[in-house]
Amino acid sequence: MAKTRKPSAQLSREKLADMYTKMMQTRRFEEKVAYFFSRGMVHGTTHLCIGQEASAIGAVGALGDDDWMASTHRGHGHSIAKGLDINRMMAELLGKSTGYCKGKGGSMHISDLSSGHLGANGIVGGGIPIATGAAISVMQLGEDRIVLCFFGDGAINEGTFHESLNLASAWHLPIIYICENNQYGMSMSTARATNVEDLSVRASSYGIPGVRVDGNDVFAVYDTVSAARDHVRKNGPYFIVSETYRHMGHSKSDANRYRTKDEIAEWKKRDPIPRMRAYLEGAGGFAPEEVDAMEKRASDDIEAAVSFAQSSPDPELTDLPTDVYAD
Amino acid sequence: MSQREITYAEAIREAMSEEMRRDPAVFFMGEDIGVYGGAFGVSVGMIDEFGPDRVRDTPISEAVIVGAAAGAAATGTRPIAEIQFSDFLGIGIDQLANQAAKMRYMFGGNASVPMVIRAPAGSGTGAAAQHSQSQEAWYCHIPGIKVVTPSTPYDAKGLLVSAIRDNNPVVFLEQKLLYRQSGPVPEGDYTVPLCVSETKRPGRDMTVITWGRMVSMVLEVAQKLSSERGMEIEVIDPRTLMPLDAGPIIASVKRTGRAMIVHEAVRTAGYGGEIAATIADSEAFFYLDAPIRRVAGLDVPIPYNPHLERNAVPTAESIESNILELLE
Lengths: 327, 328
Prior knowledge:
The structure holds two protein chains of two kinds.
Chain A: H1 13-38, H2 53-61, E1 68-70, H3 76-81, H4 86-93, H5 127-141, E2 147-152, H6 159-171, E3 175-181, E4 184-185, E5 188-189, H7 190-193, E6 210-214, H8 218-235, E7 238-243, H9 261-268, H10 272-281, H11 288-310
Parallel strand pairs in A: 1-2, 2-3, 3-7, 6-7
Antiparallel strand pairs in A: 4-5
Chain B: E1 5-7, H1 8-22, E2 26-30, H2 46-50, E3 55-57, H3 62-74, E4 78-82, H4 93-100, H5 103-106, E5 116-121, H6 136-140, E6 146-148, H7 153-165, E7 170-175, E8 182-184, E9 198-201, E10 206-210, H8 214-229, E11 233-237, E12 240-242, H9 247-256, E13 259-266, H10 271-280, E14 293-297, H11 306-311, H12 316-327
């Protein structure tokens, strides 16, 4: 098993416990959602981030509470990391009126502007200009906050990626662009989609720093985003490529024809959750029972979220035409 | 006291400037809007008053102009984004249609997107097929945005002030050929409400519904027919196409018994079809003495040759002959 490095910042025990609990909540949340879908208990589709938890929790863990975050279609981990209420997330997946979008959005549109969450997004690369606009607001309003913009490797060949990074650089906007390279845009491998092996070199096109980080190492991600956060507040945007892997298929339609079992098995050896657990029980100074308790709490939280969601009412038909226009 | 007259372009500049003075959250971005003053000179001088932080020259990047406007609008500011020609909005349409327009609904009402996209539309400048379109119907087909098409300097200022203060994405389609036309415009603060149709000319014989540049053309024809033949044409300008204030249109057609829609945009799947259907769906149907008629652009791209260009869209002559036919 690959090792997870020691965090360079001295993280408190509370912070470590919070990050591990959120990693576990994300894993259990996704497993529950996969179960629901396999049983036909929810409709539509969903995109699971099992295997990518360290990227989400490490990156968002380095943000301030007021910082903005833009998520993607594979965004449940980002939302949990940003501190969203798991009950309301699960309710949204089940289309309930108590969900974050009152059942109108589903998995791909979970958002909570009041928590700094600019929204998951159903359009690949679609959230990048939105996040860039939030950084313009920060600048216009003279606020002390930054923006963290997530997207996948599929998004970096969209025009919005280029237009946004260029504009942000020209205007010195306080925004971190973080590409979670899980190696595939649906079935298209990064290697086939672009002739650039190290995606972070694209930053040089925009005259901004670009770094590549082991996205399955929660502390490596945390440290990288922490440094980037300091940078962007003074110097404009920063580009990070978080190298990771999704253990599950792209969505529920995925039969995994484009990758091998060996490859998946190889990446599972680098599963971020056992890596973090090993750190906690070693240099982290946690007793195994303490870590067990975090895992139990995470599982309990997901079961409670399921109960909350299942007992919540569906939206009324009278809600159908509302919320199109603001007053 | 005679009222001050300024141009349509000046009226738009005045609306933006007054709102930027009133509300520090309003800012303006777009291509060549700073020192250059915009491709049509609409923003000349604004950068001198407001500086480059509030009058932001952007790279030629329409997708991020539109998307960043949406992101900025959702996070506490009120951006005005200029798209140099409305034709270029195609590059930003995902950000408009899938992001800005849907954000509020997708998020269960937990977002407001107070942004204005200003974009010059229309033919008549010899700029050919990619710089001359009237695409209002595209945007009317997207719930969540408002579509505004001012036809006079007075409406341009008052509607733009309303659009900037509105808490929704507004596509504000300006008319290139009207930019230099003058008309009475009050100094200082006033608004023309969105989503309110206006009767530009009362009449008993026929209702013509039209917007943008076609309004003044139809009014001239109506005046001519009144003085030459004693025909009285009622002219209604919806001013906001989406959401449409259909009430005055239906009431008018019930009185006149005849309805014609005139627009510059191509005929097929144009917004005139929607208005015709709205009339036909309503109680006005039972008062019709003739079929509803559309006078619209031909189903062709706008050509370059001036003679071809002029005849690709309704002209005073074609409007007049259609009115006379319908009144027979």
